[in-house]
Amino acid sequence: MAAITDPATEWELAPPMSARLRGSLGATYRAARRDKVLAASITVLLIGLFLAFFAPTLARTDYERTDPVNRLLGPSTDHWFGTDNWGRDVFDRTIVGTRLSFLVGVSVTVVSTVIGVSVALVISYFRLLDSIIMRVVDGFLAFPTILLALALISLIGPSVGNIIIALSVTATAGKIRLVRGAVLSLRESTYVEAARAVGVPVPRILMLHVLPNIVSIIIVQATFTLAGAILAEASLSFLGAGVPEYVPSWGNIIATGQGYMQVGFHISFFPGLFLTITVLAVVLIGDSIRDHLDPKLRGRLKTTAHS
Amino acid sequence: MAEVLLKVKNLSTLFRTEGGVVKAVDNISFEVRAGETFALVGESGCGKSVTALSIMRLIPTPPGEITSGTVEFDGIDLLKLRNREMRAIRGSKIGMIFQEPMSSLNPVLTIQSQLAEPLKIHMKLSSGAANDRAEELVNMVGIPDARARLQQYPHELSGGQRQRIMIAMAMSCAPRLLIADEATTALDVTIQAQILDLMQDVTEQSGTSLLIITHNLGIVARYADRVAVMYAGKLREVSDASDMYAEPQHPYTVGLLRSVPRLDSDKGAPLTPIAGEIPDLTDLPDGCAFNPRCLWAVERCFTDDPELEEISTGKRVACFEHASVSLHD
């Protein structure tokens, strides 16, 4: 929201991508300075991303090697989060597990959002296609997410790629339903009719007039999807339909720990804590983005910040 | 007499609803001449807006459908155009302003991007040129501090300002015809007058014809050159505006005029409302649709439906008894 000094020259050439990126990063920074919750949430996610990239080099032990002598040790200076039933370091396995959880979460969110929003925009203008696609979507939504993902994975085999595919299918169905509803109601709005009355072609109406109005819905839903996918991956791994047991993921570690709740509470507790904090951060960021995208709320935030 | 710009002939639009088929516009014909202000009046639900949307071909189909007629604009039948060709006319040759200024601007786009849009689409202007022109337009419709306004969002403007922006947008490509569909109904009375004056000014300057759709007879009296009175989907009387006020020839027009106060009527004289209600459009009475409420109805009115007939130069009335109908009894 930089002050625009001369609109004519400012907009003559679209600013280069890097400048636009810098602009939005700057806006995020300024928003985070006003909003402590947002700042904390972003910090949590940055740490998560950092771990996802560098955990294997940060790990102090070989997180896959078993060490039966030191099994089920409680947290100590040697093993910050203790060790599991095979004597593997829970701290190392948890931070390495960040990698898989983030990969699945982000992939499922991106795939389902891109496909879901595109499909919803297209079918909203084709009645026949709409009724066909929506019946398929109803079919997918009739099953609980985990059940459907389990069925798909038993069909195509457990692997990280297949987990992403299975979770994306159900997430996409939900997105199509949500976005289509929003598009259909916006299509009847006076300003869309007014846009048609000045001769704006349908694709341009969808991209320029409808899409910006549903961005907040899409983003909030995306944060739910991200949180949901991380949880679903954990559930699938917990149920044994995810990645193999020796590969650390938060869900896997929690699953391992559940058999040792009474003697080794720490095994499930720490990855569970990571999971909870990450999901909370994502949801809070979603809330905050929604507030900042709404021009009406944005004005209000600005005035309250100044007063 | 100026050339005819818009010639609507035998236009019928119907809606297929669950309650039955509604003939929202039933075989209507009228002409709008270049540069004139033409008013279409009638109560809610009589088909005024559907007429406007039919001209623009913005009737939602289904359930709506234009079943017959021609809409000749500048010699071209709009109803025969392909969608792409019609889109090129909307916003460039015909501008339209809607009833609700609160919701006819997109809440998440700046005024600038919305004002510049028709300029980019129809006049193929670059972003820079379109933005410069947008600023001129905002100045033209009398909003101060145009440059700052352009960067604002619709919710930061008042209702009157938004309707000014809509006028600027509708006039941006210098259309030949401006359709104002109840454009001032949602505004308070002083703003109404300002907006109408503005519309008249900008259309007069550019020689644009103005088609005002309203239920407000005061607006008609002050701004319209000619007027068509609509009731239950049909035109009942078409005449010069001054004629209509002096000598209404259709019972419905008389009823409308008797139900508003006049400066020349006796002080304290009661207003006479039109008895009864608008008929159900899916189940119109036989004969003339106005017969249940008509003070002059004769036997024939309950069996035959009168056609619009020219009774003197420039005056057409659809009533068997028009000769005996008079404002003063």
Report the top-level CATH class of chain A: Mainly Alpha
The number of E-state strands of chain A comes to 0
Q: Which protein chains make the most extensive interface, counting residues with beta carbons within 8 Å of the other chain's beta carbons?
A: A-B, 29 and 39 residues
Overall average residue pLDDT of chain B: 86
Number of helices of chain A: 12
Structural class of chain A: mainly alpha
Write the CATH fold name of chain A.
Answer: MetI-like fold
Q: In percent, how helical is the residue content of chain B?
A: 25-40%
Flag low-confidence runs of chain B.
none
Oligomeric state of the chains? heterodimer
Distance between the termini of chain B: 35 Å
Order of helix and strand elements from N to C terminus of chain B = EEEHEEHEHHHHEHEHEEHHEE
Question: Into which percentage range does the β-strand content of chain A fall?
Answer: under 5%
SSE sequence of chain A, one letter per element: HHHHHHHHHHHH
In which order are the strands of the major sheet of chain B placed? Answer: 6-7-8-3-9-10-12-11
Terminal CA distance of chain A reads 18 Å
What composes the largest sheet of chain A?
none
The best one-word shape of chain B is: globular
Number of helices of chain B: 10
Task: For this entry, give a set of tags.
heterodimer; A: 307 residues; mainly alpha; MetI-like fold; 12 helices; globular; disordered N terminus; B: 329 residues; alpha/beta; 8-stranded mixed sheet
Write a concise synopsis of the structure shown:
Chain A is mainly α.
Question: How would you describe what is shown here?
Answer:
The complex is a heterodimer of chains A (307) and B (329). With 307 residues, chain A is mostly helical. Chain A has one domain: MetI-like (MetI-like fold), CATH 1.10.3720. Chain A contains 12 helices and no strands. In chain A, helix 2 crosses helix 3 and helix 3 packs across helix 4. Chain A starts with 6 loop residues before the first helix and ends with a helix. The relative contact order of chain A is 0.12. The N terminus and C terminus of chain A are likely disordered. Chain B has 329 residues and is an alpha/beta fold. Chain B has 10 helices and 12 strands. Chain B has an 8-stranded mixed sheet with strand order 6-7-8-3-9-10-12-11, sandwiched between helices. A 4-stranded antiparallel sheet of chain B has the order 2-1-4-5, covered by helices on one side. In chain B, strand 11 and strand 12 form a beta hairpin. Chain B is globular, with a radius of gyration of 21 Å. The mean pLDDT of chain B is 86. Chains A and B meet through helix 1, helix 8, helix 9 and helix 12 of A and helix 2, helix 3, helix 4 and helix 6 of B.
